[in-house]
Write a structure and sequence with these properties.
- The structure is a homodimer.
- Chain A is elongated, with a radius of gyration of 27 Å.
- In chain A, strand 5 and strand 6 form a beta hairpin.
- The N and C termini of chain A lie far apart (about 60 Å).
- In chain A, helix 2 packs across helix 3 and helix 5 runs antiparallel to helix 6.
- In chain A, the strands form 3 sheets. Chain A has a 5-stranded antiparallel beta sheet, sandwiched between helices. Chain A has a 3-stranded antiparallel beta sheet with strand order 4-5-6.
- With about 350 residues, chain A is α+β, with helices and mostly antiparallel strands.
- Chain A has 13 helices and 10 strands.
- Chain A folds into 3 domains: about 80 residues, Winged helix-like DNA-binding domain superfamily/Winged helix DNA-binding domain (Arc Repressor Mutant, subunit A), CATH 1.10.10; about 150 residues, GAF domain (Beta-Lactamase); about 100 residues, 2-Layer Sandwich (Enolase-like, domain 1).
- The relative contact order of chain A is 0.13.
- Chain A binds a DNA duplex (30 and 30 nucleotides) through helix 3.
Chain lengths: ~350, ~350
DNA sequence: TGTTAGCACTCAATAAGTGTGAGTGCTAAA
DNA sequence: TTTAGCACTCACACTTATTGAGTGCTAACA
């Protein structure tokens, strides 16, 4: 059987109605609200067909029908109209994002906040995975309490600081810092191998009086810090919106699910080749998301995927609006990241 | 009427039972479970008295009774027995906390995590308010994209980095950094007035070619950074536990309430003179907490209150256990903070 | 005089029965 | 092909017992 024009319009009407009301939709409502010029009986026949084809589901005999996962998929693929975000909204979010233009995690948090405000669904965002953080400066400072502080600054202004339990006087700390800086400054994090770190060994042992064990510790520590520099964070906002479309038990399971950040990071990474990824209901392999939809976008730096921004909501969410919002915000992130990392080189 | 020995034991029994079951407690249960050697009728009489005295509440005529806020208050003040935390648990948390001994916010997050695991209630914790952060080093680094990065390091290893939208070449950045460092190094944050910052003005304008406006901006910016160094953060963990003792609507209100971090910071600051603070039900002035209890402890550095750790749970929570857990964890925090900030000066 | 067995009473919670109405599928006529 | 009409279904809301945990009161008892 074919999805002819009429069936399509009816399917569209059912989806629209269900998105608004979250109640099963009957043939009478479709016949009245949409001037298709058809009686409820005709629509009833068509809806029976649509059910047979797997696009509609009847919760029970005397109820209306709700869209199936397949219907949403069809809708998203072929029927969805472009949603236009209001000029005012765009201006507002532009303003909000550009206020904090210089602090990476502030931008990411802000972006998440805006997304959650715009969609009113749970928002997930990762900090960018910058595989090539260029190191601007390294420094070692001696602290009270027998500790030293290693600071690594990247070209783009990301600061990694990590405390080493090693007692050094100010002079030794400065000296060691100088050696580290000399060795690593200007390099990209993904070019720094452990061999590179180890190449400092000789110079350090010549110029500083350290036990072999302490030396190894220091080298390991530096390597760790460099690796951690590439770590991404993940932020979740507006978890409470889950309560709007789930009962307590399901909500609890969702909350528990959202605690596993590692898993979430994996999950939110959709297909890196398509900007937007939509997973509807059982398309999510994870049990906890079986009756949710996950919409994510990749934001990028220099045309390479850098991180993800996404939204978890009910299957009956307004996909058009969510996709438009995510696109809009990710584009802004792209712009800001470009400014931060590539800079206005032209000027 | 007096709260004689027998009434006391009955009240205790009701509270105990209710803490376990969360169901109104009847006279029969008390008479059977606790071998007071009294019939249910006698207990009934006593319970009627206790209700009259305001310690028990009857939800409806044919129901058992539940403890009132006053009962919990009486219990907490006079009846609560010391809860002993298992040696194993203590060992475990000691281990967990000391793993991350050197990164301030890691410790605070870890402490929050442990508290939530131990009590299974929503945990709130603030980072310490260190009114006297001694500045170890200041630095200014030029970045790509027309920005500069100000880094301030304290004696204890707290790093504050803040990006300034001012384009400087490496040399100027280093020079400006040097001036800032010379002026502020060794000072305590609360000794730094704006006058102090302004005292750099002359030297900066002499040695660097900056517009007057840019100069003012820089000074403001530095002052801001210093002020922010004293800012405290607040972390919330295990919000989902709210769903265990609240219906969806109340839970939603609670979630919204917990979003206002500023308000929360104020709220969690109990009496600084007593280590533990317990607010039961309507003792909380805030509407949203009217049927919760908030238990907080002050943790301290050098015998001065530095921050708070607290738990929000149902009024029927196990106060003894919560207080013991909070005490235990805060003592560990105290120890670690001491090591970090005062150091093993004796050695 | 305090304690307790006994009994009538209360009332939330549960179960069982009963409409109601929104919705259906099918049929037959337009 | 469409649609009016009709019998049918079934969740939901409503009403009406039924149950049982708990009470307060009274009178008898130690």
């Amino acid at each position: 059987m074919e999805l002819n024009e009429r069936k399509l319009r009816i399917l569209q009407a059912v989806i629209d109605e269900y998105m608004g009301t979250a109640e099963p939709v009957g043939s009478r409502v479709i016949s009245k609200k949409n001037n298709l010029g058809l009686s409820s009986a005709t629509i009833r026949n068509e809806m029976a067909d649509l059910e047979e084809m797997g696009f509609l589901i009847q919760p029970h005999t005397s109820a209306g029908r709700i869209p199936s996962d397949a219907a949403y998929r069809y809708y998203v693929n072929s029927m969805m109209k472009r949603y236009k975000i209001g000029v005012k909204t765009i201006e507002q979010l532009q303003l909000a994002l550009e206020q904090k233009i210089n602090q990476l995690d502030s931008i990411i948090k802000k972006a998440s906040h805006i997304t959650s405000a715009l969609t009113d669904y749970t928002t997930i965002i990762t900090t960018p995975e910058l595989k090539s953080n260029s190191i601007k400066k390294c420094e070692l400072v001696s602290l009270s309490g027998g500790c030293s502080l290693l600071i690594i600054i990247t070209q783009a202004g990301i600061v990694k600081n990590k405390i080493l339990t090693l007692s050094l006087d100010d002079a030794s700390a400065a000296l060691l810092g100088e050696i580290i800086n000399k060795t690593l400054c200007g390099l990209c994090t993904n070019d720094i191998t452990f061999d590179k770190i180890q190449s400092m060994q000789n110079e350090i042992s010549q110029r500083l009086d350290l036990s072999p064990k302490a030396l190894i510790n220091i080298l390991d520590f530096i390597y760790e810090a460099i690796e951690e520099l590439d770590d991404t964070d993940i932020y979740i906002e507006n978890e409470k919106s889950i309560l709007k479309y789930n009962d307590i038990e399901k909500a609890q399971k969702m909350f528990t699910f959202l605690e596993d950040k590692k898993n979430l990071k994996k999950l939110i990474k959709g297909d890196p080749n398509s900007k937007v990824n939509i997973k509807i209901g059982s398309e999510n392999k994870v049990e906890e998301l079986k009756d949710c939809s996950l919409v994510t976008v990749n934001y990028s730096l220099n045309n390479k995927t850098a991180g993800q921004l996404g939204v978890i909501g009910p299957k009956r969410m307004n996909y058009a609006k969510v996709v438009a919002s995510l696109n809009c915000i990710s584009e802004h992130i792209d712009k800001i990241l470009y400014q931060m990392y590539i800079g206005e080189s032209g000027e």
